[in-house]
Write a structure and sequence with these properties.
By secondary structure, the chain is an alpha+beta fold. The protein folds into two domains: 138 residues, 60s Ribosomal Protein L30, Chain: A; 243 residues, 2-methylcitrate dehydratase PrpD. It is built from 16 helices and eight strands. α1 packs across α11 and α10 packs antiparallel against α11.
Amino acid sequence: MNVNEIKYKTYIQILKEELMPAMGCTEPIALAYGAARARDELGFLPDKVEVFVSYNIIKNVKSVVVPNTNGLKGIEAAIVAGIVAGISNKTLEVISEVTTEQKQQMRDFIKNVPIMISALDGKEVFDIIIVLHHEDDFVKLRIAQYHTNIVYIEKNGNCLFKAEEAEEVEEIKEDEVLKENQEESNLTDKNLLNLEDIIDFANTCNLEDVKFILAPQIKYNMAIAEEGLNNSYGANVGSTLLKFYGSDVRNRAIAKAAAGSDARMSGCEMPVIINSGSGNQGITVSVPVIEYANELKVSEDKLYRALVISNLVAIHQKAGIGRLSAYCGAVSAGCAAGCGIAYLYGGGFEEISHTLVNSVVIVSGIICDGAKPSCAGKIASSVEAGILGYHMFMNGQEFKYGDGIVNRGVEETIKNVGRLGKEGMKETDKEIVKIMLAE
């Protein structure tokens, strides 16, 4: 692929946008980011807080530990962390610098300041509205579509900022912020992604154009994987895998990816490089590929090109599914990791496309029921499927057209998966939230 092609530049930009550092599960961190930004505009610590969130935000924040809070969980904790200790210009690392005093202030704030949380039942799957009050002043801020996309800020009834596509937030219960079926605003269109061109780009790209994006992924994500193995977090899925299933490269790749999630879902204060808005997906799409690269002793260049494939294949799948869904994002990432591993073994389009189809149809039924320790188990199953998908092809086996959601060719199968995750699982998503909120 020529470096001057629009497609080449688009692929670089997509990697820049989708691979960024975050500390903590990204949905609570988005809440903390919005709260910190609203507090900056208010100019005071608020004396009353109102939070309105879509059901998927409720689902993904309810059970996960917010880092740098001494073990606090949930929407309230994320909002208060942002208000008390957030540094808004650090975006998804907004609560990476928290003092001991601030951690105590968070608990005092929760005890003393009324915080009202309500569900938004609108079109937007990703939707956050935060209203901070101080005496007669108030600030209203909205984030929609993805984690850092502030679309509206208002202070004392005066609009301070409005995204071009957004409308004023007049009625909280109505979803009027963005036009229906609009692409994610301010992000690069992903319609140019396809597997054949992804492989071409990986083979021919100037590595200096991607190294600065991928090097932190190698450093950060492997570090949190090792942390998850060396210490006790969550359900310790990673260390359980190593204890009972051995330490060959296949199991190490699965276990280390799971261990990174073990740590991250239980409040580990180490950053990760995310993929498609998710730290778990960022870990899953990279750690197994890095582990195999180390085992095979491939060149650094080969590793970077394999990571280009795994990251872009995951992004390609998620583009059709959407940021949040009842479809578990670890599936897309684990199957994409299988594609990166196939590339490390010398695979081209045929090997990688069959790896993806074989693997994705095995685990595409895994649901997302929010961020919590069991994500590590889902990651393990998805990475295992990714590796199995490759080994199936090398053994002369494949799932064929007409087998369930398998279609003619890899791109049509990816479209089927997107349709399943975005449209087919809408009602599943609602039922999951109802189950989670039933106490």
